[in-house]
Amino acid sequence: MEAPESVFDLSAATAAGRVAQPVHARYAALVPAPFGVLGLRCRGDRLTGIDFLPAGLPLQTPTTELARLAAKQLADYFRDPTTVFDLPLEPDGTPYRQRVWQAVRGIGCGETRTYGELAATLDSAPRAVGQAVGDNPLPVVVPCHRVVGRHGLGGFAHARNGYSIEIKRWLLRHEGVLGH
């Protein structure tokens, strides 16, 4: 699987009219994953985001106790997919998105739900659920990879192919949902 090349977020910086910061400046840790590097973002004593970054990016030792704990739990998960995450989370999102992400956290390892099934439990529409799932700022910990389409994988991080879908496939294989 090939990761994106850029280690700068130029779109956000360009939109804000400022130069992009190097990746290391934005994260409390950069930790290895089987498919690349994960950038951990924290605010105070809460984990606020996990970003998929390219393989080969230099790792960064956790700068806070929370980042150290998150890095350990992620490493545990990559060894054993039944690992249960116990981290203080603070994802930014509307009340609706918060409800969707909370419902996604209830999907256990080795299980999946379709966007439609999740929508039915939330008295919502599958497309709205798909948008909220795609906006999940805490992938892996809030296991949005476990939400699939009625007739296939569906998307992942608003992508329907490429690097993101390969990550979703890896995660579902790791959990025994897809064959190797």
Protein topology:
Elements: H1 10-16, E1 29-33, E2 36-43, E3 46-53, H2 65-79, H3 95-105, E4 113-114, H4 115-122, H5 126-134, E5 147-148, H6 163-174
Parallel strand pairs: 4-5
Antiparallel strand pairs: 1-2, 2-3
Helix pairs in contact: 4-5
Structure explained in plain terms:
By secondary structure, this protein is an alpha+beta fold. The protein has two domains: 10-79, no CATH class; 95-174, Arc Repressor Mutant, subunit A. The protein has six helices and five strands. It has a three-stranded antiparallel β-sheet, with helices on one face. Strands 4-5 form a two-stranded parallel ribbon. The longest helix is centred in the middle third of the chain and has 15 residues, at 65-79.
Roughly what percent helix?
Answer: 25-40%
CATH architecture of the largest domain: Orthogonal Bundle
Morphology: globular
What structural class do you assign from the helix and strand content? alpha+beta
